[in-house]
Structure formats: structure tokens, C-alpha cells
Write a structure and sequence with these properties.
Elements (H helix, E strand, L loop, with lengths): L1 H8 L1 H24 L14 E8 L4 H19 L8 E8 L4 H12 L5 E3 L4 H14 L3 E3 L15 E3 L4 H14 L4 E7 L2 H16 L3 E8 L5 H12 L5 E5 L6 H9 L8 E4 L2 H8 L5 H6 L4 E5 L5 H10 L15 H22 L6 E3 L17 E3 L2 H9 L2 E4 L2 E4 L10 E8 L2 E9 L3 E3 L3 H4 L38 E6 L9 E2 L6 E2 L1 H11 L7 E6 L8 H9 L5 E2 L7 H4 L3 E2 L4 E3 L1 E6 L1 E2 L13 H22 L10 H14 L12 H30 L3 E2 L5 H6 L4 E4 L4 H7 L8 E4 L2 H10 L8 E5 H10 L4 E4 L6 E3 L2 E2 L4 H16 L1 H9 L23 H30 L3 H11 L13 H9 L2 H29 L3
């Protein structure tokens, strides 16, 4: 009532009071809502202090670099008015002390302080445990040091990695292994989540490059020197000499210290270290000479961070930072940059979170309460209500930090992962290239390549030369024969036939033959010893099945198979073969009989087409010469019958160069010279071919090759144990009932001699080296028919990915180049040549395709001569026929006086023929007489005109 009275008396004062009350409510209500979290403005409820946690091992290589970087980043954020205005970032740091249990307890203690984000940990094992805690409390975990690739799984939605994942580092190592041509590596790693999961990814990356981890050498965290010594002793007995070391920075040098004592950091060894080693060396100031001596020739990867001005300014501040740990050296390494950027990422995202209306508030989790009077105080753990929104804000961040571009891809990994490839030598590290998932290995900085098209092809990979252990500039082979006292188990087929190739021997080494000598010669060329022992395969009563022999190698029953083993597709799928040391292929051998000489053998040198074309050209050239000589040469004139005889006689007499007619015209001589040259070539070729046909033995067989053998129903002989059995059945669809297994050369001879009607075979299908020996032993009574219908070779079989297969291939090529392979061949396989196949006689026949060029030249010469001749004749005829009236008629009457007069236009084709048939001398005489008459007629007419003009 009083208020109404006041309002009524003073309306303006009342309105002022209402406005003041409104402002007071707007200011006071949010302050009550914020509670202990501080004050907020009316437009944006920002707290005055926001807690951010940091969890890592302070007294470690990574921790000593990360701690000053984190604290410097917090100071820089709080002093920057453009980030979180009115809000202070409070960093709460706890030490995990490299313990999973302590780390878990510290994480629980950390989240009791209502942190909006946790930075760390550096340990992948601790990160796995803490990720479950932050998932429950919705607190984003920004790890600058946990590189385990499995932490990127969907199982940990609140885990964000602010450094590069080992997933990319392992693919970089796989590219290195492929670049240098190695096939196998040995992984030496610490047996925890960080080591196991990283090496697992390395195995997958190598598999994509057709390489593999031959052995995984794991040791427990904190292992003693004696345990590491035992581990490396076992590793040194294996064949691979490429070691990938994936351990923690604080204990990694033990590996190289023990390896040096064992003589494993010398020539021939390859050591590849992950990013732990550069991080350790970067943090050692000044450089320790003794440490560097342990690492000479090691290749290592380091996180690549662009040399921006922002990074250079921070590094110039590093020595003046007041936050360094006094308990140990705080050398700079790349993890300091990632830690610094983690704080800025949290701050920038928090600023964007507030700008989007986000509030920092926490609530109790009903699932977290103390059970059975527990003193753990789980009820003090509270859920960050805005955690999901804050997480999405972090994932959207995109800015440039000290380490480069800070932006996440769909898998929550930082974009543009890249590494430096370093080579340790002297007292420092030399960069020999870069690796990025955008371009692979390159000597060009990644940020330059990002502006070019994506290219990771093998041909694009490039690195500068490296210096390997033992000051070796040549790329190590990467493996040696294992020094474990176990000789190579080599299976040798125990043959009962064709023992010149391979057979049992009573003298050491227990086997002999061509194949054994080739293998021993190749082994002796290797730059390292290869102890081996031969093991006979087969019972010695029948030839072994070679497919089963190769399967034994694939199943690790033998290390290799040496002998007459054919390289075929199915076998290459399960074993690796060397370079072929002998060519081979399936051929058909069949009985043959000699062809009796034919009375028409003289026609065989030329094909029918060749005979026809040659005869036609004889007549054609004779006709051309007659045309060219008929007007000027009396030997080519006479009655039609005489002229026809002359043409035929002249044509065929040129075959023997016995033509009696002389050529008088220039064109005729030109044609005759070219034709005589053609006749010379034809005569010589005919003589050579006929001589070959009459002197070489001619053979014939009912079987003409594999096609005729398939179409028949007669039995086929096949060597027992040969791949030809399966090939004929599976590839050529020949019924198995038609195939007959044969043991040795005697059975070959008997089966072919008897033939299919007497219980033998129509033909034998076998490999060419066997057939050559068989034909030689039978004095060439049988012959091969058709051509080789498969192309293959013999090689030595090794287990998949065996480096011996590659080295022996090189040795076999060397044997071939220096002639030793041929010498071994001559030693064991000297034989009588039976190279004449039954279908080679037909190949001696000469066809038109061999002479069409000569005929073409002769035809062109005849055409040119005839064209020139007729042009000249037509010009002469035109001079006779070009006049009108009496002048023209006189010329025609002189040619044909018996015919009545006719005009020029009525001249017939017969007139032209008659003109052509006259002798050249008569034509010239007529032309002279005509010219004289024309002059006399012109003189009187001029005199008449002169006398009549005065009148």
C-alpha cells in the first residue's frame, strides 16, 4: 500500500528502483548458480579459474623436457589477453613415477580437483588405465607422449593424442626396410603395451611390403644387463641382421651397450631405432662421447616439426626457462613441443567452448559411491557435465603450434604425420631424409611436398647415403647364415634313371651329378660360409614324386631342394626358386622312319606358288624384251610363228644364260640385266635347297606333335615322378588311362619300339634335358616331333622369403657369365646331337616370301621400260597423224597403201599397230621425206605471193 502511494506520488522514482532490482537479480543469480567455481559475466558465464591436470613421470627423459614446457605454456596462456579473458588456467601436476598402479591412483586424485582436461600421460600402459577413468568422468585426456597405436580405438573416446601415433612410425620403418632391399627384421622391444602394440603394427606394415618380422625379442621393463645379454646372444644366432629397437628412452642404451660388448655393432649389422633414441640424444647436453660411440651407424626416426619462427623463438627461450627440474638434465626434445601445444590446445578449445555457451559444472555419478565403508572416497569423483561438448570442440580445433599444424583427422590422429630419418655418426646425428604418409621417403621437406600431388610410389622413394656400423658405406646385405650350429638341410631326389643329373654316391658328400656340381659351385661363390648336409629323398627303387619333395620344403621338413626340380606355377606358390640354371620344356618323342627318295624330288626346293610366279615372270620378261627389240632388232622379227618361238626360247634360255639373241635397245638391255640378276639368285637358291634336300636324311612319323597326340587315343609314356603326369591330365585334359609310367631309358626304348599295338606307347612326353640324353643313348633312332609346348627351367627350391634364393640366383648368373656353367654341363652331359626334327625338311622349301622383293624390282623395271617405249612410239605416230588433208593422208597412205584414203580422225587401231610393227629405220626415213616435202611446198607459195603483190 505504501509502495502504491509512493508510486503514485513519484512515478519516476519507482521506475528507477525497479531497474536497479532487475540489474541486481541478473548479477546475483548467476553467482549463486556458479557456487564454488567462481564468478561469471552476464553475457558469458566464464569462471575465474579453470583447473587443468598434468600427469607424467617427471624424472624421465620425456618428463624433464615436458615439465618446463607445460608450465611455460600455462604462463603464456594466462598472459595472453586474447585467450580466456577473465579466466586463469591453473595447472595441477602429479608424478606417475613410471608405475601403472601409482599412475592410476594419481589420476583418481587428479580428477578430484574438478579438472576440465588432463594432459598426459607419457606412458602408453598408464594411458590405457587412465582412459577408462576419463571415459567415465567425461574429461578429455590430451597425451603428448603415449604413442601406442591401439589408444586410437573407439574404446577410448576421450583419449586424444597430441603427438604422432606409432602406427605411422612403423610404416616409416617398413618403407626403410623395403627401400634398402631387406626382407626380414628382428624386433627388439620392451614387453609392455607400448612395445607389443607398436611391433604388432610393424608386422602388419612389413606384410604389406612382402617382408616380415622373423623373430620378436621381448624383454621385461627394467630388465638387467644379464637378461639383455642372454636375449641378444640368441638373436645373434639367427640369420637376420636387421634389428628394430622399440624401447623406452630411459633404458634403451642398455641394448646398445650389451650389443657392443657382443660385437654386434660392426660391419654387416643394421640397427634401426624408433623415436626414443633421438629424444634421448637431444636431451643430453653436452654430448656424451661414450654414448655416441655405442651408436655409430644407427639409423633412427625423429618426429618432424617444421622450423617455423614460433618454434625458433621458443627454443631460444628454452635455456632461460625457470621451471626446469634440478634433479637431472632438462635437455630439449620434440616432446617438449607436443606438451606445450597440448596446453594451448586445451586453452583454445576452452575459449571456444565458453564462446559457444558452455559451462564448467560437475555432478555426482550415482555409480560412484563408497561401498562397505571404503576409504577410497569414490564419491568425491564427479562427472564433467560439459565434457562431451568440450571434446567435440577440441576435435574441431585447427591452429599452428610449435610442432606444426594442430588438427585432428577422422581417426583422432594429428594430420600430416612426418619423421626425420637420421644417421648417427661421429658425435652427432645427420639427417638423410624425411618420411611422411603423403610422399614416403624423400630428401625434400614434407611441407614442400604437401603442395604437390600425392605420390608414395616405389620409384619416388629417395634418401641420402648412410654410413652403417663398422664405418661401412655399402648397404649391408641384412642377413647371414645362422650361426647356431645347424647345417642347411638339403633334400636331393634319389633317382633311379638319368643319374647323370643327380644320384646317390658312396663318397662324401653322399650325392653327385650335374645338379650337385652346379649347386656347390654357386655356394662357393657366396661371400659367407653355408654349412649344409644332403638328405636323399626317395627309396631308390623308383623316382620320387617331385611335388611331394617341394611340399616337404614348404612344410619346413627341409631347408632346400637341390636337383632336377622344374620351376612351375604351382610350386612357386609355396616355395622360392633360384634363377634357372638349365632350360627345360616338355617335348614329344616318337618313332620315325626314313622317307625314300622321290622321282619328283627336284620340284621340292620351291613351293607351288614360287614355281608359278617364276614361270610367269620368264614369259613376261621375254614378251617385254621382244616388244622393246622388235622394231630395231631383226632377230626379233619374222612371221608370227617365228616371233612366238623367239619369245619362248629367249625367255627360258635366260635361265641358263644361253640366249643367242642380242639386245640392241637401251631399254631392252636394262630389263635383261635386271632379269639376269634375278635369275642368278633364283638358280643359286634352287641349287642350295635341292642339295640340302637330297643329302639330308628325311624322316617321317605318324605323330606330328602334341596336337595330333591329344587327338589320338593311343597310350602316352610319361617319366615316373615328373610333373608332366599332372600337366597332361589337368592342363591338356588327356585321360589318365592313356598315360603309362616309365622308369628309365630302357623302358623308354622298349615302349617306343613295341608301339601301341604290341603293348608299348605311341610317343613319350618328357622334359627336353632327359629326352636329349635318351636320344643320344639310342643313337638317334627316335626323334622329337613338333616343338616344345611348355617353357620352363630347373632351379633350386628354398623356403619362402629365404635370402639364400636371391644370393644363389646371383651366383648362378655369375657361373653362366664366366663359362663355368657350360664347363659343368660338358663334364656330365656330353652326348651325340640328335637335333634334326622330322618337320625340318619342309622348312627347306623356298617360298615366294623370300623373293618377292626381287620380282618387284624386275616388274618395276619392265613397267618403266614399256612406258618409255610406248611414249616414244606415240610421239612418232602423232607426227604422222597430226596433219590435215593431203598432208595427213599421205602419211597414212605411206603406212598402209592398199587401204582407201581416210581422214586423221578415222585412223583405226590397226593403223597404230601397223605403225608400231614397221622397222625403226623405215619410220625415220619416212619422217625425213615428209620434212623435205613440207619445205618444197612452202617455197612455191612464197614465190607466188611475191610476184602477185606488185600487180
Amino acid at each position: 500500500m505504501d509502495i502504491l502511494q509512493i508510486t503514485g506520488s513519484d512515478h519516476r522514482s519507482f521506475m528507477a528502483i525497479i531497474q536497479l532490482l532487475s540489474i541486481f537479480c541478473i548479477i546475483c543469480v548467476p553467482m549463486e548458480v556458479m557456487g564454488k567455481n567462481g564468478n561469471a559475466s552476464a553475457s558469458s558465464p566464464r569462471p575465474s579459474v579453470v583447473n587443468v591436470g598434468a600427469l607424467f613421470t617427471i624424472n624421465s627423459v620425456i618428463g624433464r623436457a615436458a615439465k618446463p614446457a607445460l608450465e611455460a605454456a600455462v604462463d603464456d596462456v594466462n598472459s595472453d589477453s586474447s585467450i580466456l579473458p577473465g579466466t586463469k588456467l591453473n595447472l595441477i601436476t602429479l608424478d606417475t613415477n613410471c608405475s601403472g598402479f601409482i599412475g592410476t591412483m594419481e589420476a583418481l586424485q587428479l580428477v578430484e580437483n574438478d579438472v576440465v582436461a588432463a594432459i598426459g600421460p607419457q606412458s602408453s600402459g598408464i594411458a590405457h588405465v587412465i582412459s577408462h577413468v576419463v571415459n567415465e568422468l567425461h574429461v578429455p585426456l590430451l597425451s603428448f607422449g603415449a604413442t601406442d597405436p591401439t589408444l586410437s580405438a573407439l574404446q577410448y573416446p576421450y583419449f586424444l593424442r597430441t603427438t604422432q601415433s606409432d602406427y605411422f612410425q612403423m610404416f616409416a620403418i617398413a618403407d626403410l626396410v623395403t627401400y634398402y632391399g631387406w626382407r626380414e627384421v628382428i624386433a627388439i622391444f620392451v614387453d609392455d603395451d607400448y612395445g607389443r602394440n607398436g611391433i604388432s603394427v610393424l608386422g602388419d606394415a612389413l606384410a604389406k611390403k612382402r617382408c616380415k618380422i622373423s623373430y620378436k625379442a621381448a624383454f621385461t621393463p627394467g630388465a638387467s644387463n644379464s637378461a639383455i645379454n642372454d636375449l641378444l646372444v640368441g638373436v645373434n644366432l639367427m640369420e637376420s641382421r636387421v634389428y628394430v629397437v622399440h624401447v623406452n628412452p630411459d633404458s634403451g642404451l642398455k641394448i646398445f651397450s650389451v650389443a657392443q660388448n657382443l660385437g654386434m655393432v660392426t660391419k654387416g649389422y643394421v640397427w634401426i631405432a624408433t623415436d626414443w633414441l633421438p629424444s634421448l640424444l637431444d636431451s643430453i647436453q653436452p654430448v656424451d662421447v661414450n654414448t655416441m660411440n655405442l651408436l655409430q651407424g644407427v639409423v633412427a626416426l625423429r618426429h618432424y616439426t617444421p622450423d617455423t619462427d614460433l618454434k625458433k623463438r621458443f627454443m631460444s627461450r628454452w635455456n632461460s626457462l625457470k621451471y626446469k627440474n634440478t634433479t637431472g638434465p632438462a635437455g630439449f626434445n620434440s616432446y617438449a613441443l607436443f606438451a606445450y601445444d597440448s596446453v594451448w590446445l586445451a586453452a583454445r578449445a576452452l575459449d571456444a567452448f565458453f564462446n559457444d555457451g558452455g559451462r564448467v559444472s560437475f555432478s555426482d555419478d550415482p555409480k560412484l559411491h563408497d561401498r562397505n565403508r571404503s576409504s577410497l572416497h569414490l564419491s568425491s569423483l564427479r562427472v564433467f557435465n560439459g565434457g562431451q561438448q568440450y571434446l567435440q570442440t577440441i576435435l574441431r580445433m585447427n591452429f599452428t603450434g610449435l610442432s606444426g599444424q594442430i588438427q585432428f583427422d577422422l581417426d583422432k590422429n594429428l594430420v600430416h604425420p612426418a619423421y626425420e630419418v637420421l644417421n648417427i655418426g661421429g658425435t652427432g646425428m645427420r639427417r638423410i631424409g624425411y618420411w611422411s604418409n603423403y610422399s614416403g621417403l624423400s630428401v625434400v621437406a614434407p611441407e614442400t611436398l604437401y603442395r604437390k600431388p600425392y605420390n608414395t610410389s616405389t620409384s619416388n622413394q629417395q634418401l641420402y647415403p648412410a654410413i652403417w656400423p663398422g664405418e661401412n658405406s655399402e648397404t649391408p646385405r641384412g642377413w647371414v647364415f645362422p650361426n647356431n650350429g645347424k647345417p642347411l638341410r638339403i633334400a636331393v631326389p634319389n633317382r633311379v634313371s638319368y643319374k647323370d643329373f643327380v644320384a646317390e654316391d658312396k663318397n662324401p658328400p653322399g650325392v653327385r651329378g650335374y645338379c650337385i656340381d652346379v649347386f656347390e659351385a654357386a655356394i662357393n661363390l657366396l661371400p659367407y660360409p653355408v654349412p649344409h648336409t644332403y638328405m636323399l629323398y626317395g627309396d631308390g627303387k623308383r623316382n620320387p614324386v617331385y611335388n611331394e619333395l617341394v611340399n616337404g620344403v614348404a612344410q619346413n621338413k627341409y631347408d632346400a631342394a637341390v636337383g632336377d626340380v622344374t620351376i612351375i606355377t604351382n610350386r612357386t606358390k609355396i616355395v622360392d626358386f633360384t634363377q634357372p640354371y638349365m632350360e627345360s620344356g616338355l617335348v614329344v618323342v616318337a618313332p620315325v622312319k626314313e622317307v625314300k627318295s622321290s622321282p619328283w624330288a627336284f620340284l621340292k626346293p620351291f613351293t607351288v606358288q614360287m614355281w608359278c610366279v617364276t614361270g610367269a615372270f620368264f614369259l613376261f620378261v621375254g614378251a617385254v624384251v621382244w616388244i622393246l627389240e622388235h622394231r630395231i632388232n631383226h632377230e626379233f622379227r619374222g612371221t608370227p610363228r617365228q616371233q612366238l618361238i623367239t619369245i619362248c626360247w629367249f625367255s627360258f634360255s635366260t635361265m641358263f644364260f644361253s640366249h643367242r639373241e642380242n639386245t640392241a635397245s637401251t631399254l631392252g638391255r636394262m630389263v635383261l640385266i635386271i632379269w639376269l640378276f634375278v635369275v642368278l639368285i633364283i638358280n643359286s637358291s634352287y641349287t642350295a635347297s635341292l642339295t640340302s634336300i637330297l643329302t639330308v636324311q628325311q624322316l617321317t612319323s605318324r605323330i606330328e606333335g602334341i596336337d595330333s597326340l591329344i587327338s589320338s587315343t593311343e597310350p602316352i609314356g610319361v617319366q615316373e615322378g615328373s610333373f608332366a603326369w599332372n600337366y597332361l591330365i589337368d592342363e591338356l585334359n588327356i585321360a589318365e588311362s592313356r598315360l603309362v609310367k616309365l622308369q628309365n631309358q630302357d623302358e623308354y626304348f622298349s615302349a617306343l619300339k613295341r608301339g601301341p599295338k604290341a603293348g608299348g606307347v605311341a610317343a613319350i612326353v618328357d622334359e627336353l634335358p632327359y629326352i636329349e640324353l635318351f636320344l643320344s643313348s639310342t643313337n638317334c633312332k627316335f626323334r622329337t616331333v613338333g616343338q616344345e609346348f611348355t617353357k620352363s627351367g630347373w632351379g633350386f627350391a628354398f623356403q619362402r622369403d629365404s635370402p639364400l634364393a636371391v644370393d644363389l640366383s646371383t651366383a648362378i648368373l655369375q657361373l653362366s657369365e664366366n663359362g663355368d656353367l657350360q664347363k659343368i654341363h660338358n663334364k656330365w652331359l656330353t652326348r651325340t646331337e640328335c637335333s634334326m626334327q622330322i618337320n625340318e625338311v619342309d622348312d627347306n622349301r623356298l617360298s615366294l616370301s623370300s623373293f618377292w622383293g626381287l620380282f618387284l624390282i624386275c616388274g618395276l623395271a619392265c613397267f618403266i621400260a614399256l612406258t618409255t617405249f610406248f611414249c616414244r612410239v606415240l610421239c612418232q605416230y602423232r607426227k604422222f597423224a597430226m596433219g590435215h588433208g593431203e598432208e595427213g593422208e599421205v602419211g597414212v597412205e605411206e603406212i598402209q597403201p592398199a587401204r582407201p584414203r581416210r581422214s586423221l580422225r578415222s585412223a583405226s587401231f590397226k593403223d597404230l599397230i601397223g605403225f608400231v610393227d614397221r622397222k625403226e629405220t623405215e619410220i625415220k626415213e619416212m619422217l625425213k621425206r615428209k620434212a623435205s616435202d613440207s619445205k618444197r611446198q612452202a617455197s612455191p607459195s612464197k614465190d607466188g605471193q611475191a610476184s602477185s603483190s606488185p600487180a
